Amino acid sequence: MRVRFVYRITGIVQGVGFRPFLYRLATERHLAGFVLNDDRGVLLEVEGRMEDLEGLGEAIRRDAPPLSRIESIRTTRLPAAGHEGFEIRESPRAKRRRVPVSPDAATCSGCLRDILDPDDRRHRYPFTNCTHCGPRLTIVRDVPYDRRLTTMAGFPMCDACRAEYEDPSDRRFHAQPTACPVCGPRAWIEDGNGIRMPAVDPIGETRRLLASGHIVAIKGLGGFHLACDARNEMAVAALRERKGREEKPFALMAADLAEVERHVHVSEREREMLASPASPIVLLERKGEGDDLAGGVAPRQPTLGFMLPYTPLHHLLFRPGPLDPPGPAALVMTSGNRSEEPICFREEDARERLQAIADYFLMHDRPIHLRCDDSIARVFRGAPQLLRRARGYAPAAVPLFPPLPRSVLAVGAMLKNTFALGREEEAILSSHIGDLENLETLRSLEEGVDHFRRLFDVDPDTVAHDLHPDYLSTRYAHEFPARRRIGVQHHVAHVAAVLGEHRVSSPAVGIAFDGTGFGEDGTSWGGEFFLFRDGSFERAGSLTPLPLPGGDAAILQPWRTAQALLRRLDAEADPHEALGPLAALVPSGSIDLVARMLERGVHCPWSSGAGRYFDAIGALLLRRTRNSFEGQVPMELEALAWRAADRGAKVTSGAMGTRDAARWNGAGAGQSGTSDDPPFMIVEREENGRAHPGEPAWPSRFRVDLGGGLRAILAMERRGEDEAVLAFLFHDLLARASAEAAARLAEETGTKTVALGGGVFQNRLLLGLLLDRLAARGLAALLPLRVPANDGGISYGQLVAAAWELRAHG
Ligand code: ZN
Ligand code: ZN
Ligand code: FE
Prior knowledge:
Elements: E1 2-12, H1 18-28, E2 32-38, E3 41-49, H2 50-53, H3 56-63, E4 69-79, E5 86-88, H4 109-116, H5 159-166, E6 187-191, E7 196-197, H6 202-211, E8 216-219, E9 224-229, H7 233-243, E10 252-254, H8 257-263, H9 268-275, E11 281-285, E12 303-307, H10 312-317, E13 330-335, H11 347-353, E14 360-364, E15 376-380, E16 383-388, E17 398-399, E18 408-410, E19 420-423, E20 426-429, H12 439-456, E21 462-466, H13 472-479, E22 484-488, H14 490-501, E23 508-518, E24 524-533, E25 536-543, E26 546-547, H15 552-556, H16 558-569, H17 575-579, H18 588-600, E27 606-607, H19 610-622, H20 632-651, H21 662-665, E28 681-684, H22 685-688, E29 702-705, H23 707-718, H24 723-749, E30 753-757, H25 764-776, E31 780-782, H26 794-809
Parallel strand pairs: 2-5, 8-14, 10-12, 11-15, 18-21, 21-22, 23-30, 25-29, 30-31
Antiparallel strand pairs: 1-3, 1-4, 2-3, 6-7, 6-14, 8-9, 9-13, 10-13, 11-12, 15-16, 17-20, 18-19, 19-20, 23-24, 24-25, 26-27, 28-29
This protein binds zinc ion (ZN) (2 copies) and fe (iii) ion.
């Protein structure tokens, strides 16, 4: 007896080779019927003998193409309809667009073989791709995902490509961006004046230019990179100088894994991540000895960010032909922008904005529709964590919990801005947009929102935003035509993001540590302890706030915060003396000025930001007066502390997962440590809960006061104790105090869950120490994984908080 089944498959199932895959499955099993893409996914209708249909559903799940992600398969059984043969049918015109556009994917092994095979018609063709790899989000103008609605519309297929495109057994069947040297995009080189240079092999010419120390702007998948030889000290220095980027580390692209391993340690998980279709920049621990990279690549950083070639063009840059001279094996590949601006992705724009930086331009004529930066990831204790979610990940939906009763747009924060569209149980996150500090980036946000609303057919009537009145994202939210606006406190969003990602609805403790964020009382927060209960967030505790002399100036010049901290620790001390060696690096008039500002409380906004403590202690221990990029001094303080942590680990158990310095970690697991550990206090509001005039109001329960411990650490510094040990003790102090505070709140609410969010938790040492302390008390810590811990995760957190709010108050 013949039977008929209809399979409705949803998820990322279009543009990833799903129909040829089903075609093969059906014909192998002698089934008749058809398959088509529609606006909800893939529809498969098959008819045949029962035994041939057996196990088809499982086979679809098991053998699905590599880039697909099946969300659901719904099966309906129907009486036979007399289908004959199996065909791939045309897509009906979309009415409602629910089909996810997939992320861009790194060159697959099949395509790499093609471009390296001298007998293949795509030999050395830089725009080779197939259904398993290639551009997606960056070239899509509209849905459904069809060549005519991508930036490949201007490249009519040649006969050979057309034949592959129409052959269901071919890897390029319905590969929308497919192309070849006859019909597809081309690359060329220009000099700084926009004059095309005659070059038969523009990529080979680029390799030669890079090898001879030039800076080349390279148009890639989601935008331009600025590239130079990573071993060439002069080229790297010139790039820094011209880009206006003082010390922030540069990302690197290496020819292959062997080259990566020459410079950094790579674990199995990290290897997988490097070679994955998403192909992010992976932060890896530097080997140090025998490193021949230019010193200017990542000054004083213990990690390097490496990625592997992810387009055929990149692969060819590293693979000279048999007669070509070799090129650099590792390139600096930093985003093609001037500092603080979004990356360039159009030729005209690059010519104009990068002219003063790049000596040459490697261009191509496949238009990029949507800008997309490289993603940044790392592995923390075996778990992959995204620090910047962009190319290769966006716009894959992140599950949303709790589900939204209606569609919401969340516009994110200011730094590392992203936006998110939420609908029911999914959040569609934009890729990294950048720091919303200029109109250029704001426009990028506005255009991105419009584009995503169209692509995903989401029409939000509610908008969630940060409480900071001056963020450009907040202003945009107020102009956005919405029925309802929900302001979400910055650190609530940090914690909510983690809770949402881990689907937590029961009570939990949340710790948000970051630089600054606008608090409900109008002061700046950033070292916060929350109680999450019944869908609402209570600010139960915070770090003791510090005044920041000069506000933003203190963030740029952390010695100011150090001086403020020293005054809190000892109001009587002479500021010049207290600052010690740091005082010599600061104009003495400035110290007196800051002293007066602190005394009178003039232009000294308060902040409880954990990052500000890192600034202050970092300035004192490292003797550094400036942050040349966000978080620089804190990052260097962590690097310094690792030196002691690593020594501690070597002395004791060697291969401990955390590499904790056991000397300080051993005694009294779960207690606040040994008696000679630098002490902290948790000051209950009832004990001392009256804010001094001009000071910020207290949280509902307590303040965590690190004063005693910091006094002890600084006294040791004056006695000449090793700075690395002191940097470690500071991390440990903060971890012990935080674990104690979290444990109190957990006990009170009977929860075992502690969610950790905010940019400070990018600090692996602090995170590891805190995790161990919490574990020792039987508490389970939840970490940001798919959504960045830093402000890139704020938009998702705003969605989660808005979902709780809408459930409670509609
Ligand atoms: Zn491919
Ligand atoms: Zn062709
Ligand atoms: Fe933040």
